[in-house]
Amino acid sequence: STGLMLPLSSPISVSTMTTASSKANLLGCVGGGQLGRMMALEAPRFGIEMKFLDPAGDNCPAAKVVSKEQIIKGSLKDASKIRELAMDVDILTVEIEHVGVETLEALEAEGVNVQPSGRVLTIIRDKFLQKEHFQEHKVPLGSYRKTSSLDDIKEAVRDLGLPLMLKSRTGGYDGKGNAVLKSGSDQDIAEALQKLGCDDSSTAETELDLYAEGWINFDCEVAVMVVRSSNNVDTESYPAVNAIQVDSVCRVVLAPARNVPTDIRKRCEELSREAIDSLGKGASGVFGVELFVTKEGNVLLNEVAPRPHNTGHYTQDACTVSQFENHLRGVCALPLGSTKMIVEAAAMVNVLGAPSGTEEDTLKSSNAALEMPTAVVHWYGKHGCRAGRKMGHINLTGSSQGEMDDDLKQLLDIEGIPLS
Ligand code: ATP
Ligand code: MG
Ligand code: MG
């Protein structure tokens, strides 16, 4: 036995911050949305308290589950606010990669323990740098090309073919930084640039913050949550799941992945662990790895998120230890928990703000789920409901797929997710 594992000592003071502590009583998180909130719900069970920085302050989802003193209101890119958070905590983590990573790197240089590290966040938050990193480490990818000018885009159309996927290098989520080029015409390119917020009057002088991907004719999309401890000893993965997207937004997850042969599922899991290990020291906590399985049965990496991920929410009710608890364990250098499923089958349905935008309509699927023996509701407590906004999710579990599929179909119907 290695003795006491839980971090039970009293919080270290600001004056001792220069010695990076490996075990935390107080964990700071940049971002207090639903991911931060779901971390905070797990943390007290093993003696960890959490503190958050979020632009919505007391209105952010995490603020509803921790005390008022644990919330700092401010931009996720505001250096002074990030420093204020860092002052008080033993370890700093993130719930989103679109944050002031430069500040995190500066803090690390001053001895603050940032997990995952600023170096890892720098690679991942820029999707082009991500591609370059994984290419260098021989992780299988689709074709891609840096496109910092109009000429580059035209060249990419020639070399990678049509349709062409143009992506913002930074800041994208739910497909918002992506535009599909169906032709290489000037008009199509201009429309895509406008969608991506690139002002074409300035494109002549300034570099476009874009890159292009060749179109992938995938059979299905799969996701794997990988968790790595900051002591760099262990890398574990959760089972490969189907990540079903509608209009580039994750709507449904099926675990384990259906209609994917076992050997391909194993390949997805292995490739995901290898990809995260290739990030090296500082790759700690949970990583969401998004993959394409092609019609030929090849597995290609799409992108990685350095944090718990929407496609891993099913682990809350379907696995021994959830992605949120394992993220905390990973970033706090505690032993990782088992990633095994404790049920035969699980699913997750995202609850998006109803088209009407009213909370009443949005609550329909959750109310139905409350009556279902296979379902559990996870509501995020967001301040304000909007059509299409992620408001919560519903996890289903069963001792077989058959046991939960009727309930699943009913929820898909209420959420307006087309059945196939
Ligand atoms: P997330 O919310 O997952 O961070 P994102 O905005 O970063 O999403 P991507 O994951 O890059 O966006 O793309 C969103 C979706 O678009 C993918 O899940 C996939 O369905 C589709 N897609 C992305 N790249 C390609 C491609 N090269 N070829 C075909 N489809 C693609
Ligand atoms: Mg993304
Ligand atoms: Mg994605």
From TrEMBL:
Annotated ranges, domain ATP-grasp: 131-332
Catalytic activity: 5-amino-1-(5-phospho-D-ribosyl)imidazole-4-carboxylate + H(+) = 5-amino-1-(5-phospho-beta-D-ribosyl)imidazole + CO2
EC number: 4.1.1.21
Transmembrane helix found in the keyword field: no
Keyword line: ATP-binding, Decarboxylase, Lyase, Nucleotide-binding, Purine biosynthesis
Domain of life of the source: Eukaryota
EC supergroup of this enzyme: lyase
GO BP term, pick one: 'de novo' IMP biosynthetic process
The keyword Transmembrane helix is annotated on this UniProt entry: no
Listed GO MF terms: ATP binding; metal ion binding; phosphoribosylaminoimidazole carboxylase activity
UniProt pathway: Purine metabolism; IMP biosynthesis via de novo pathway; 5-amino-1-(5-phospho-D-ribosyl)imidazole-4-carboxylate from 5-amino-1-(5-phospho-D-ribosyl)imidazole (carboxylase route): step 1/1
Family named by the database record: In the C-terminal section; belongs to the AIR carboxylase family. Class I subfamily.
The protein's name in its UniProt record: phosphoribosylaminoimidazole carboxylase
Portion of the full-length sequence here: 34 to 453 of 641
